[in-house]
């Protein structure tokens, strides 16, 4: 049976799952009617403007785990500019676990969710997300992980931590969820958060932010609507204080409902530990 020919005949297909089929390229006969496309766990390492040409009805694209420690490809994923040019209705894009070295150029302005988890991205540039005015969920965790006690193969980030341009999130005014966990961050630039007035969930676990959340934390002054913040596992290796007091700037989180402190590592909780939240 001709796989490509059969695909072309599926003219009423709305959802298509081609997961774990060992594909090395995108079939060029995908039905133009498809709205949800899953291509995870294949061996596709190159995408260009022809890869999704004509798929103008696509709203969800799951393209994860095509190149990672569980399915090694021994090279970087290469996504050329304008790969997603025809996907003007795309809302959800998952590119996690693909060994990307940079944020792909020309991402659709229609996106509401973007997942770039656990690639090899070392730097977030000023214009990487500048056109994503409708984005509500951004996941860029695990691109520069802490490798001590890692449950899976882990390569330390060459630069020590993920580098994020001061204005990288400037146009993400609709953002509600931002995941920066596992990027070996040692500080948080207040400018990242100045225009994120709708942010509700901020995930910062598994970084090196112990001082950033117990000392001066001016970034918290820009997050009046945050309801959940996760600062777990931000301990300093070989430094286990008896007591900890959260930064006085936590008092600015007037909408906070959930706070994660797991693995922050200190010996005792007293009346002052959470006093800024009173």
Helical content, roughly?
A: under 10%
The main β sheet shows up as: 10 strands, parallel
Q: What is the alpha-carbon Rg in Å?
A: 21 Å
Query: Strands of the biggest beta sheet: in what spatial order?
Result: 1-2-4-6-7-9-11-12-13-14
Supply the helix-strand structural class: mainly beta
* Average pLDDT, all residues: 93
Our count of domains comes out at: 2
Number of helices: 2
How would you explain this protein's 3D organization?
- InterPro entries: Leu-rich_rpt, Leu-rich_rpt_typical-subtyp, LRR_dom_sf.
- It comes from Nothobranchius furzeri (Turquoise killifish).
- Keywords: Endosome, Glycoprotein, Leucine-rich repeat, Membrane, Receptor, Repeat, Signal, Transmembrane, Transmembrane helix.
- GO terms for molecular function: pattern recognition receptor activity.
- Pfam families: LRR_8 (PF13855).
- The protein has two helices and 14 strands.
- By secondary structure, the chain is mainly beta.
- It has two domains: 1-87, no CATH class; 122-278, Leucine-rich repeat, LRR (right-handed beta-alpha superhelix), CATH 3.80.10.
- The strands form three sheets. It has a ten-stranded parallel sheet, with no helix packed on it.
- The protein is elongated.
- The termini are far apart.
């Amino acid at each position: 049976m001709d796989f490509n020919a059969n695909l072309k005949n599926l003219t009423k297909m709305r959802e298509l799952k081609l997961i774990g089929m060992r594909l090395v390229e995108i079939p060029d006969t995908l039905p133009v009617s498809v709205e949800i496309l899953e291509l995870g766990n294949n061996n596709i390492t190159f995408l260009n403007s022809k890869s999704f040409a004509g798929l103008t009805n696509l709203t969800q694209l799951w393209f994860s785990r095509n190149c990672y420690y569980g399915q090694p490809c021994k090279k970087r994923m290469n996504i050329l500019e304008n790969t997603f040019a025809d996907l003007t209705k795309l809302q959800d894009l998952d590119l996690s676990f693909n060994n990307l070295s940079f944020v792909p150029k020309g991402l659709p302005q229609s996106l509401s969710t973007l997942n770039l988890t656990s690639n090899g991205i070392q730097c977030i540039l000023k214009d990487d997300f500048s056109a994503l005015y409708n984005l509500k969920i951004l996941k860029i965790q695990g691109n520069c992980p802490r490798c001590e006690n890692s449950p899976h193969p882990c390569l330390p980030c060459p630069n020590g931590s993920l580098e994020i341009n001061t204005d990288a999130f400037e146009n993400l005014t609709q953002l509600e969820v931002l995941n920066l966990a596992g990027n070996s961050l040692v500080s948080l630039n207040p400018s990242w958060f100045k225009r994120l007035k709708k942010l509700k969930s901020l995930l910062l676990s598994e970084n090196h932010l112990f001082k950033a959340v117990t000392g001066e934390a001016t970034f918290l002054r820009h997050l009046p609507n945050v309801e959940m913040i996760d600062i777990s596992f931000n301990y300093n290796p070989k430094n286990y204080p008896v007591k900890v007091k959260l930064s006085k700037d936590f008092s600015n989180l007037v909408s906070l409902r959930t706070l994660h402190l797991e693995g922050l590592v200190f010996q005792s909780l007293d009346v002052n530990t959470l006093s800024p939240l009173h």
